[in-house]
Amino acid sequence: MTELTEQSRTISWVDPRPQAEQALTMSGLDYLRAMQEGTIPPPPIASHIGLEVVDVAEGLAVMAATPDESHYNPIGSVHGGFSATLLDSVCGCAVQTTLPAGTAYTSLDLSVSFLRAITADTGRVVATGRVTKPGSRAAFVEAEIRDAGGRLLATATSTCLVFQP
Predict the structure, then answer these.
(1) For residue 64, what is the enclosing H or E element?
(2) Which helix (H) or strand (E) holds 45?
(3) Which string of b and e fits 124-133 if b means at least 16 CB within 10 Å?
(4) CB 129 within 8 A of CB 91
(5) What would the pLDDT profile of 84-143 be if each residue is shown by its tens digit?
(6) In 3-state terms, what secondary structure has residue 78?
(7) Measured in Å, how far apart are the chain's first and last C-alpha atoms?
(8) Environment class of 49 (CB within 10 Å of its CB; exposed 0-12, middle 13-18, buried 19+)
(9) What are the backbone dihedrals phi and psi of residue 35, each rounded to the nearest 5 degrees, phi first?
(10) Is residue 96 part of a domain?
(11) Which family would the database say this protein is a member of (predicted)?
(12) Does any domain span residue 12?
């Protein structure tokens, strides 16, 4: 039997509630640009998977993360929840870039297709979400994850509810 070596990972974050309130005072695009620039801290989920905002534009969100063994499932590959979280994040943020101040959103559904296994050896992956149909009540999004070589690893479609809080 092989010797087991316990490893650990430390996660730090700030209380997200003040930023959530601030988000309602800014357009979604301005808010995400401030997050990308570091003037607004990222949400706690970003710490869990090492998520970084790479680019945002109207109807577009690009984020990256580097999977490691702390993301593994029992069969020795990155858990599908890693990809689903990354895809849900770019889908939601792509919708957020289309919203004016005072408007919010939430995911109604997320359909993920896992096309290739992801492991720690995969390295940094980049997810891109694009709004296919913005709306005042619902918005539709497509997303994908690719590795550094451009190989398609997973895809998703999502519907987000748009509302006034």
Answers:
(1) strand 60-65
(2) helix 44-49
(3) ebbbbbbbee
(4) yes
(5) 999 999 999 999 999 999 999 999 999 999 999 999 999 999 999 999 999 999 999 999
(6) strand
(7) 56
(8) buried
(9) -65, -45
(10) yes
(11) Belongs to the thioesterase PaaI family.
(12) no
Instruction: Tally the domains of the chain.
Output: 1
Cβ atoms of 11 and 48 closer than 8 Å: yes
CA atoms of 91 and 127, how far apart (whole Å): 9
Nearest to 99 by CA among 129, 138, 127, 46: 138
The sheet with strand 138-146 has its strands ordered as 52-57, 60-65, 125-133, 138-146, 152-163, 104-114
Torsion of CA 24, 106, 124, 68, to 10 degrees: 110
Average pLDDT, the chain: 96
Q: Residue 65 in 3-state DSSP?
A: strand
Residue 27 belongs to domain spanning: 17-163
The 3 state secondary structure assigned to 117-160 is: CCCHHHCCEEEEEEEEECCCCEEEEEEEEECCCCCEEEEEEEEE
Write the burial class of residue 141 (CB in 10 Å: 0-12 exposed, 13-18 middle, 19+ buried): buried
